[in-house]
Amino acid sequence: MERNTLIGENTQNGHLPSTYDAAMEALSSLITSKRRGDRSAINSKYSKLDRMMMYIKILDLEEPVEGLKIIHVAGTKGKGSTCTFCEAILRECGFKTGLFTSPHLIDVRERFRLDGSDISEEKFLHYFWECWSAQGIENVRDDLPMPPLFQFLTVLAFKIFASEK
C-alpha cells in the first residue's frame, strides 16, 4: 500500500515531478526486501512473466518491443563486459544501439545507454515519469501492483529503446 500512496502523491492533478531526486525517491519505493531464491514479494495470481507482459501492454509497447533486435546475455561471469563489447561492435558497424545492464554503481542512469552514452537526465526523467504514471493509480490493483524495482527498470528500458528507436 505504501507504493500506491507514493504513486498518488507523485501524480496528483496530472502533475509529474521533474526533479531527479523525486524520481529516485519514487524508484526506491519499488525496492523489496526479497532475496534471490525467495518467493515473490508480490502476492499475485500472475507469474512474473505474465505481469511483465501486462506492464508492457499497459505502456502499449507490445508492437514496439517485438520490433526491437535484442541480444540477451546470461551467465555467471562477464555479462557486462560481453554486452559492452557487443554494443561497441554493433555501433562501430553503424547500428543505432541501446544497452541495458544491471546493476549500476553510482547512478541508475548508468543502466541505460543510447549509442554508447548514458541516457541524459532529461530523457531519463521524461521516460521515467511516463512509465511511472502509466503504471500508476488507474492501473494498480491488488493482483497487479507497481512492478518491483528490476521489473520496472526493465519495462523502462523497453520504453526508452522503443521510443528512441
TrEMBL record:
GO molecular function: ATP binding; tetrahydrofolylpolyglutamate synthase activity
Name listed for the protein in its UniProt record: Folylpoly-gamma-glutamate synthetase
Transmembrane segments: none
Keywords: ATP-binding, Ligase, Nucleotide-binding
Similarity annotation: Belongs to the folylpolyglutamate synthase family.
